[in-house]
Fold each of these.
Amino acid sequence: DYRAGSETAGWAARDVKNNLQMKPGSHSWSALQQLVSGAINRNDVFNLAAAPKVISPLLISRYETGMGYGDHVDNAVMRVGTPLRSDLSFTVFLSSPDSYQGGELAIEDTQGVQTFKLDSGAMVLYPSSSVHRVEPVTSGVREVAVGWVQSLVRESDRREVLFDLETLRRQVFARDGKTAEFNTLSKAVSNLWRMWVQL
């Protein structure tokens, strides 16, 4: 069962949101929540990059021919399930990119506009403060799961530092094992987490 996506849009986005969303509580919705949320929770790169404190329940969105979602910024507080501060947004592509035309996720950043149309199961994680849109689908059906993250580390530059250092720490361990250098790097990373985490 689907309903108009505009029912879950903020007042400023209702006029540009033209899609369908699966009604919560159905068997299909529950099964997709479990499947996709489980995959997200097991993904090391996602957990390192997002440092999630709270992840919203997923919205399962469907775009049929002629549907799209114009330029918008996600609400600062998302009220899907327990309210959370939206630090990061994500889109998990469910449809094969070959099964529809158009429908690219377009995100504005300091480099201009980047577009994404990824394989089934792939995710884009991006700042909720970004202006973004879904280009109109010209044929076929685009299905995605979308959600939001309140991070343990609110500042994006600090999350980037932690991501880079943790990536380096794992590389050092893979190359040399548990050395004195690894222990010093681990201490620095842990101390930064203690300084920056908001519980």
Amino acid sequence: MTTIPFELFDHRINVNAMVNGEPGWLILDTGTGRTGLDRAWALRAGVELRWAPDSNSALVDSMRIAGLVLRDYVVSLFSTSRISERQGRFVTGLLGDDFLAHFAVEIDFPERMVRLYDRASYRYDGPGLVLPFASKKEDLVLNAYLQAPDGKWIPARLLLDTGNGSLCVILMTPFVERQQLGRIRPVIDGPLITGLVGPLQIAVGNLPSLSLGGV
């Protein structure tokens, strides 16, 4: 087992990492497929643009997270400036599913610890609820039911996204329109979520209930 302490900052799981010997904060983001770094920071840290000078992928010589060391690790490159502005401090990058998929992962919020177990031998025997993934891929997609204001229960496939931080559930516009959920009132309009592309225009409202695995 590997234990990684984390800081819950702006409702997001932040872990310390050393990339090519340079320290930085990575957000543990189950909604991101590949681990990525801020491009300008990564170039200063000496990542290798092996494929092309303008490539959005790079090779990291070493990435250390707690007791784990990743060698010759491929990462994505992008700007984290929008996220950093939202958090109020510089965000080095996002730690994605390509890293987490190698382990059975336990996130202990009260103790502020992420525990990584060998996925082949791990067996869960606690009192918690076990929810199977609804995707054949490694994506953390769960089957859920949302209750509309008229009492109707609507099936939904939700991505478990620890990088979201602010809201319980985010529904995409086509789904809202198809299920006629735009009639939810009252709502608060405004760009309240900041992602890699900047502020996202959303409307915040309340659904009567959310059901996951019978809970």
Amino acid sequence: MVDELEMLIKEYQVENVVFCDGNFTISRERAARIAEEIIRRKLKIRYAIESRVTEVEEDLFKLLKESGLKRVLLGIESGSQTMLDRFNKGTTVEENIKALEILSKLDIYVSPGFIMLDDRTTLEELQENISFVRLAREIMGNKIRPFDITTKMYPLAGTEFESYLRENGKYRGDIFRPSYKIDNLSVRFIHHLLNLSSRVLFPLRGLLTKEDWDSQWMRE
């Protein structure tokens, strides 16, 4: 892998790389070996990876940063524990917060994977998610990409969520445009309102910014 990076750098003057790996740190040993080899060869590269919150360890990510890591797509998914449990995520809100604190300390950008709603989201869960978004912004400052707080759990074909929706008569649309209604009428109304007003209300509430974040992490 590092041979290929070296070839891209020397022959094609590549400076930025995104690793297309759903969980780059699933093997901490492998991730560390890659970083160490990049450092040993003195390769000048900036790169982005994906990771679970449970694998964000300060020593490992300090090494990754030294080798050129600039951004992490972090699978947070939710700031509500009941929703994390419903998603079978196998993580906790506390682990989400700890991962953000480590990455903030190391000055590494975060692109959050986040699901604000599913069909069973309650008002309490919605409030927990919004509170978490605010907390994440406090922890990370401008080192985190703006959350899209209108996102719904997506019923990908073949998933348990799709099967559940079909079995309970909730599935709407088709494989190209799957959809479903949110059970709670108040949450459904809020989601509809947020979709309509996202370009105006979210920046004013400090949940989104107009910063060109994607360009920024590559430049720094």
